[in-house]
Amino acid sequence: MSPTPPARRLRLGLPRRVFSQVLLMQVAIAAGVAVLATGLFLAPLSRQLDEEAMRRALAIAETTAQDPLIAEGLRTTPPTRNGPVQREAERIRRATGAEYIVVLGMNKVRWSHPTLSEIGRPVSTDPHDALAGKEVMEIDKGTLGRSARGKVPLYDSGHHIVGAVSVGIAYDSVRARLTGAIPGLLAYAGGALAVGALAAWLISRRVQRQTRDLAFSDISALLAEREAMLHGIREGVVALDRGGRIRLLNDEAGRLLGIGDEAVGRTPDEALGEGRTTDVLTGRVTGTDLLTVRGRRVLVANRMPTDDGGAVATLRDRTELEQLGRELDSTRGLIDALRAQDHEHANRMHTLLGLLELEMYDDAVEFVGEVVGDHRVTAEQVTEKVRDPLLAALLVGKATVAAERAVALWVSERTWLPDRLVDPRGLVTIVGNLVDNALDAVAGTPHARVEVELSARGRTVLLRVRDTGPGVPADQRELVFTEGWSTKRPPAHGKRGIGLSLVRRLAERQGGSAVVGAADGGGAEFTVVLPEALDGPEPAPAPTGSARPGTALADVPAATEEGAG
After folding, report:
1. CA angle, 247 as apex, 244 and 250 as ends, to 5°?
2. Strand locations in 468-530, DSSP E?
3. How far does Cα 455 stand from its chain's mean position?
4. Which residue ranges traverse the bilayer (predicted)?
5. Long-range CB contacts (< 8 A, 24+ apart) of 539-542?
6. How does 42-75 read in b/e, with b if 16+ C-beta sit within 10 Å?
7. Looking at the domain 21-177, which fold is it?
8. Cβ(527)–Cβ(507) below 8 Å
9. What is the pLDDT of residue 276?
10. Which of 432, 494, 492 is nearest to 291 (CA)?
11. Is 119 in a helix, a strand, or coil?
């Protein structure tokens, strides 16, 4: 036989469910409030009843003392059971309902008392104050028990004190009045408790629905897990309330947006300023996977409304992905250019082989010199005008891509840029994006040409990129710098509409500007001004160029070479 399982220990304590805990606590609070209110009401009621009893006793005593038969009998007769003082005092006591009326002389001996055996005996309490002419109200204990008393001096016709009158109302009668009031008070308290219990039940049901009947410990654990999850994930989360104010901001969102906890409680317009990022967070721009630029970061934003009228926005950093995509585009362009060069190189090798087989050695030497010289001259022409190695390498690489795409890439004779750039990588991004945009614009057009001009004026760098494409309509010259706006088909790795927006952001971050206009002879001309882009002393004068309007880095290959091989 299997052993009998041990009995479970009885666990005493609060129930686990929020509904039960809230109901129990609110009922306990309501009961406590009812008991406290009853006690607070009974305490002043008891004092009020005692006060009324003492004033009533004092009023009866004053009335008795004003009776001339009492004073005359006290002065002229001895204290006897059937004396005039006893008869008059008992008449007044029965008429007023007092517990006792005691008339005493200056010798503190009773002339009247409800208990006849006490007549002629001294009083049990000190009547000094009353015999001295003072009125006394008190709760005291005498021969008839605890009572509310009123004592007044007794005057004769000559207004001389001849004794005192003491009237008592039994304390039990006061207590009886108080006890009689308790059932009514308890009824009111019970009604209040019932109303409180009903309200507690309704509130508990609402709490139960809102908390889905979870225990407080479960809610606490969920909150802790939420905080850990929000601040641990590598995706920005911004929660907005129904008024459009930021009520939650995790660490990644603060990093991506460049704001901190001071933004909580403020609207995105106040925390971020004007821009597409603000429009996306506030819902003025709607859609899924919306591209936006914040600083130097490319972000993908999604916004989801919540049931309470607020919203939750998520932000993903696409900067590295965008850079990788652009590098991929550049790599593909270079591969295509290398493939074209390989094709051209094969044609030249075939030509060289033919010259050698024909024993035309001098022509072969001259042909090789021309081929090598063209490439050397192209690189030298760029490095003479653009002294920064990163920019020079970029332009040489773009020349190869342009030649493959049948576009003539020119560097203006006015180009002169010293090797003193403060942010060469930023300028590389600007030039690369503008040249790529120009190459896309002129692709497939006859006599396609792109011209780049870089010049230094003091510490300011001026960049112009012209093309012979269709140009940008006047009504779209500001839209082209808007994040996510593009007239081109998106590439395989992502969306367009980022390059020109980055150009303007990088320019404005350096205090400069980026605009687009119409180029001479048609096409578009992008102009970027970068103040304080150069460091160090004033640049040397630009070298004197030839009379040509510019230096061709990439010309369209001749038709005979394209068809060879």
Report:
1. 125
2. 513-518, 524-530
3. 48
4. 20-45, 185-203
5. 539/416, 539/418, 539/420, 539/456, 540/418, 541/416, 542/385, 542/414, 542/415, 542/416, 542/455
6. eeeeeeebbeebbebbbebbebbbebeebbbbbe
7. Beta-Lactamase (3.30.450)
8. no
9. 79
10. 494
11. coil
For residue range 473-527, list pLDDT tens digits in order: 888 888 888 765 555 554 444 444 567 888 888 888 778 889 999 888 888 999 9
b/e burial code for range 411-441 (CB count within 10 A of at least 16 → b): bbbebbbbebbebbebbbbbbbbbbbbbbbb
Q: Which residue has the tokens 């230094």?
A: 456
Place of tokens 């409030």: 33
For the chain, list residues with pLDDT below 70.
1-23, 26, 34, 37-39, 41-43, 45, 141-146, 171-182, 185, 189, 204, 208-223, 226-232, 296, 319-345, 369-379, 483-498, 536-565
Residue 391 has which token pair? 């920019």
- CATH number belonging to the domain at 321-563, selected among 3.50.50.60, 3.30.565.10, 3.40.50.800, 1.10.8.60: 3.30.565.10
Look at the block and give the residue holding tokens 């990588």: 425
The amino acid sitting at 129 is: D
Sole residue written with tokens 């994930």: 233
Per the listing, tokens 């308290």 go with 189
Class of domain 235-316: alpha beta
Q: What distance in Å separates the CA atoms of residue 211 and residue 17, rounded to the nearest whole number?
A: 10
